[in-house]
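ok so dumb question maybe but i'm new to this and my supervisor (M.) told me to 'just get the structure for inositol-phosphate phosphatase' and walked off. so i did the thing. is this what she meant?? sequence i used:
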Amino acid sequence: MIEDTETIDEFLARHTEDVEEAVRKAAAQEVMPRWQRLAEHEVDQKAGPHDLVTDADRKAELYLTAALPALLPGSVVVGEEAVHANPATYEAIRGGAPVWIVDPVDGTRQFVRGETGFCTLVALAHRGVVRASWTYAPARDQFATAVRGRGAHLDGRRLHAGPPEPGRELRVATSHPDYTTDEQKRALLALRTPGVAPRPCGSAGLEYLAVARGECDAVAFSWEAAWDHAAGLLLVEEAGGTHLTITGEPFRITGGNELPFTAARDAATARRVVALLSGEAA
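this is what came out, is it supposed to look like this??
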C-alpha cells in the first residue's frame, strides 16, 4: 500500500510509460477491433437511449482493471461500468488507497456511430488529488499525458493553453442537453450572450484536450462523474489552465461540488464563465 505522495512520484517516474502501454493495449485489443464493426447485440442501454454501453466499454475496462493494479500493488480501480453494476465501488475515490479512475470508452455515442470522437481515459488519484492522467484517442492516433508538477504533453509535445485571443468570442463546450435537468439548462443558457459561443460537447475527455491545446476556451459541465473529468482536469491544469465551480472553488473529484463548473485555458476565462453561470455577470 502506498503511504505518501513521494512514493507515488517515484512510481510515476518509473512507470508512466508502462501505464501508457496498458492503455494502448486495451484500446488495440478491445476497442478498435469493434470500431465501425459493432453488431446490434454488442450495444446496450443503461439509463436510457442516450446512455449507451458496448462490449468495447466492458472488455476494455476489464483489461485495465487487471493491468493497472498489477503495475501499482495496493491500488484499486474505479471504472464507469463497474460503478454502474455496483455503485458502492465509487467510494474508493474517497478512500486512502491510490485509485485508478477509468473511462474505457469516453464518447460512446460517437463510437457507436463509427465516428472518431472517442477516447480512453485513465487517471491516477490519491486522497482526492489527481496525480497523473492518460487520454488516448486511438482513431485519431493522439495520446495526451499529464503528471502533476511535470506538465501536460500531446504525443510528446508540451501543451500550453494560453489565454484566448483578445476580442474573439469565447468558444465554450457545454453539457449536452440530453444530459441536463431543466435547472441546469437555465444556468447554461446564460452562456448565450454576446462574446460567448457555446455548443454542446462531444467526448468530455476530448473537450478537455481541446482546452489544453487552446482550441477551445472553456468547458461548462453539470455532472460530477469522476471518470469523465479527472484525466482532463489535470491535463488542463498542467497546460496552464484552471477549473472552478460556481462557488469559485476548484472542482473536487471526491464530489459535493456546486454545479455547473468550468475548466478554462486561463484563470480570467474561468472567472468569466463562472460569473455567467452563477448569474453574477454584469
